[in-house]
Predict the structure.
Amino acid sequence: MQPRPNHGLQPVFCTIVPPHVLDKLSQADDPALADPARRTLEADGARRHHRRVTALAWTPQAAGTSAPVPSKPHRTLYDCRHGTDLPGVKVRDEGDEATQDASVNRAYAGLGATFDLLLTEYGRSSIDGKGLPLIGSVHYDEKYNNAFFDGEQMVFGDGDGEIFLDFTVAIDVIAHELAHGLTQYTANLAYEGQSGALNESVSDVFGSLVKQYSLGQSADQGDWLIGAGLLAPRVSGVALRSMKAPGTAYDDDVLGKDPQPASMDDYVETEEDNGGVHINSGIPNRAFYLLATALGGNAWERAGRIWFDVLTGGELAQDASFTDFARLTVAAAQHRFGEGDEAEAVLKAWSEVGVPTR
């Protein structure tokens, strides 16, 4: 099959905290909760507009290069010092000793762990396959309740301390944002509707894989939570999302209840959040969890390889639906592992979440 055409970079601005969560938080009676949420929404809106403008000026990289592909990461960390000018002041470069700033060191480690997984397990040097330098900025804005990838770098807020803590505390959040770059340089999934939910889900998948890889956990040992440790003690919840049980990550009087569906029976039709990209991602998330735990062992070895093959295989359309993606995972499993347990487990996982594969 011929590779699907890629029609240029999609103007994507991806945040770890969904807009619907911040919207709910901005309506809180307590100004200490509502004000940071409103500031975060305003800052995200400005960055989203900037991303659209810069995407229009983007041109594809020239194909082919004689330069050797790096086998080690090149990380650079910056400190925004609670301002919004990016990238900020450089505070740590590749190979530098750890700083006195825990946020800088956590971001540095998280970027490195993501690079290591991609290279060691999938033979890919950085998110673009050519050793792209990894840039991260910490301490963005005042009480900024989010982390994002803007197409060029990762940015992490400190949280308000009331609802959200420092966004570098969860390695899967760091890997999630970086994985948006992986998607940008491969399938370049459009950030709306089902393709947007797949975009988000792929980042959750690789976020979880990096966390389990760094901790040496098998699929059965992983918690399958996205952003565990990110919620402040006052919040009734364990994380932003649960891949194992979508819709159960939090149930809080301020944040509301986790709205993610676990199957197509509860698919959410909405015009908000680019068609519910952070909500409906729970469906492919659960499919991956079911596959990984059914196969057992390390999730990055077989389940992760199947997802990676689809993402990088050249056949996934930018506007792919859940069904499109599911069918390609079946084909990828059969191509790599034959007509065995892997292909059967893929079929069963998608069937359990109500996504057809045939």
About this structure: The beta strands are 14-15, 75-79, 89-93, 134-138, 147-149, 154-156, 225-226, 241-242, 251-252, 256-257. Confidence is low (pLDDT under 50) at residues 1-7, 52-65.
